[in-house]
Amino acid sequence: MTVRGPRIVLLGKQGSGKGTQGARLAERFHMRHLSTGEMFRDSAEVGVAAGLRAKEYMDRGELVPDDLVVAVVEERFANPREVRPGFVLDGFPRTRLQALELDRILADQPLDVVIDLEVPTDVVVERMRARGREDDTDESIRKRLALYETETKPLVDFYRDRSLLVTVNGFGTEDEVERSLLAAVADHFGGS
Ligand code: AMP
């Protein structure tokens, strides 16, 4: 029997703590934390063409085009070391098309659980202002939250219909939220 870890997607508004909690979860299970935002920031920093193209959208608070995001994710998943024994995907999928593409990429290794990390909007706005990342201007924050509502939130129903969705309260200390996340994963993952 091959021991494997859970295959997890983290949904949630920008500033909901997906990055912090994604890294914690990945560490717990000795798996990769795959954040598309981080991949783009890293590759833009070293001047990779895809990263520089993505940065133009990120700086405007827009979504990076689906084809570019899917290509980057697909490349990662082509490397078994990245996605075995399992993975935490953070910030992908963000559109319905990306969700369908993820199904195609995963093929016969479907997701175990999709977690919607819920935090009130006024709290995420304050968190984003405080972290002060290059793309965290008021205008970009407003745009990104609006895009979350129209493009990403529909994925909550998409995954609920497949009985993969768990909603976790992301408003608490990092340790409290981590405990809730671990409980949610344990409920959905048999480890077989
Ligand atoms: P994040 O680090 O998840 O907050 O992402 C930062 C920015 O990267 C977002 O505001 C988008 O511009 C871009 N981005 C990250 N992941 C995606 C994705 N799955 N689809 C489109 N754009 C993305």
Short description:
Helices cover 56% and strands 12% of the residues.
List keywords for this structure.
single chain; 192 residues; alpha/beta; 12% strand; binds adenosine monophosphate
How would you describe this protein?
The protein is globular and about 45 Å long. The protein has a five-stranded parallel beta sheet with strand order 2-3-1-4-5, sandwiched between helices. The longest helix is centred in the last third of the chain and has 15 residues, at 138-152. The protein is α/β, with parallel strands linked by helices and 192 residues long. It has one domain (7-186): P-loop containing nucleotide triphosphate hydrolases (Rossmann fold). The chain has helices at residues 18-28, 36-45, 49-59, 66-77, 80-83, 96-106, 121-131, 138-152, 154-160, 174-188; strands spanning 7-11, 32-35, 87-90, 113-118, 165-169. The mean pLDDT is 94. Helix 2 (36-45) packs across helix 3 (49-59). It binds adenosine monophosphate. Adenosine monophosphate binds next to helix 2 and helix 3.
Write the layout of secondary structure elements.
Layout: E1 7-11, H1 18-28, E2 32-35, H2 36-45, H3 49-59, H4 66-77, H5 80-83, E3 87-90, H6 96-106, E4 113-118, H7 121-131, H8 138-152, H9 154-160, E5 165-169, H10 174-188
Adenosine monophosphate binds next to helix 2 and helix 3.
Structural class: alpha/beta
Q: Which descriptor suits the 3D outline?
A: globular
CATH superfamily heading: P-loop containing nucleotide triphosphate hydrolases
In round numbers, the mean pLDDT is: 94
CATH topology: Rossmann fold
Largest sheet: 5 strands, parallel
In the CATH hierarchy, the architecture is 3-Layer(aba) Sandwich
Report the C-alpha radius of gyration, rounded: 16 Å
Ligands (ions, cofactors included): adenosine monophosphate
Indicate the percent of residues in helices: 55-70%
What is the CATH domain class?
Answer: Alpha Beta
Q: Order of helices and strands, N to C? A: EHEHHHHEHEHHHEH
Please state how the strands of the largest beta sheet are arranged side by side: 2-3-1-4-5
Terminal CA distance: 8 Å
Q: How many helix segments?
A: 10
Uncertain residue ranges: none
Domains, number: 1
